[in-house]
């Protein structure tokens, strides 16, 4: 006979199982409803980039009459949670999974199992390693994103000696590697160049970015250029520089293009330039691809570039960029306040930046050639 304590434990286990079944549904129930089920797995659930990605996926799923299941890791490097999420979603009967890999190589075995089970897997934003471990990749050209801010920094320095700090992502983060290498290419240097005086893993996190920048300043007080993997890390770096009384003497460049702390920091002059990417577009395209696969078996393949734009209120000769008004119009995150919109218009007007500039053909051709050469 089962003791009262064990009976309580059993009841708790049953309750948890029922709760999971209610959240994800069962394959038989979902098939009976004739509903396409799609999974979205991001690195974290708090980063505004992934919040916007979920919003885009949900809107596209609602429009198509599909059901969206979502999951995420606890941090940018949480592979274990993503593996568990893939397994749960396959068991729940998803037709396709949209995945932002936390660790590009480590996630591959779980992806293979899902694909072997007949599930379409599309990587968003970050490629797997190898890239063809998934059916398709919808993402920013992250090398180009780094290239653009590297070219911007090189033009801004105009031959002045640089002392560079790089606030990177974890070594296994392929997006981080591509952005870092693109920045070096754009600035015209190689890994290990003497101008790189400090590098470290910021985790793409504001607090960690601040700590890393503080450590870098201890190591090399004369840093005058900072590359950041994303805008939260850049914001942390700026805070450290500001507390040290050095923020006005240092140029910061980053990648993301979120409303805050991205474009607002560009307007304020805290970030000199950022490469804006478009998570909403990635998610919408991903959902549409899974729905099409469910209807007629068509699978997407290869890489689809979802676009990247350099944003700055202090444009540099020979490097095409858009201004703050364009940046706010296309940013993601909480909608900007009217005061921010007004500040963007004022910052653009001060440099005669149009609301949307047309890139010179020669500049575009040079950037495309550099990206292709990677």
Write up what this structure looks like.
The protein has 374 residues and is of the alpha/beta class. The protein folds into two domains: 25-140 and 279-305, Response regulator (Rossmann fold); 142-276 and 308-372, 3-Layer(aba) Sandwich (Rossmann fold). Helix content is 49%, strand content 15%. It has helices at 4-24, 27-33, 48-64, 79-91, 108-116, 142-157, 174-187, 206-219, 231-243, 259-268, 279-296, 324-329, 338-350, 361-372, and strands spanning 37-42, 67-72, 96-99, 120-124, 136-139, 164-168, 196-201, 225-228, 251-256, 273-276, 302-305, 309-311. It has a six-stranded parallel β-sheet, with helices on both faces. Helix 3 (48-64) links the parallel strand 1 (37-42) and strand 2 (67-72). The protein is globular, with a radius of gyration of 22 Å. Mean pLDDT is 90; it is low at 4-22.
**Count of distinct strands:** 12
Q: What is the H/E string?
A: HHEHEHEHEEHEHEHEHEHEHEEHHH
Structural class: alpha/beta
Share of helical residues: 40-55%
List keywords for this structure.
Rossmann fold; alpha/beta; 374 residues; single chain; 14 helices; 6-stranded mixed beta sheet; globular; 2 domains
Secondary structure layout:
Layout: H1 4-24, H2 27-33, E1 37-42, H3 48-64, E2 67-72, H4 79-91, E3 96-99, H5 108-116, E4 120-124, E5 136-139, H6 142-157, E6 164-168, H7 174-187, E7 196-201, H8 206-219, E8 225-228, H9 231-243, E9 251-256, H10 259-268, E10 273-276, H11 279-296, E11 302-305, E12 309-311, H12 324-329, H13 338-350, H14 361-372
Parallel strand pairs: 1-2, 1-3, 3-4, 4-5, 5-11, 6-7, 6-8, 8-9, 9-10
Antiparallel strand pairs: 10-12
Helix pairs in contact: 3-11, 6-7, 6-14, 8-9
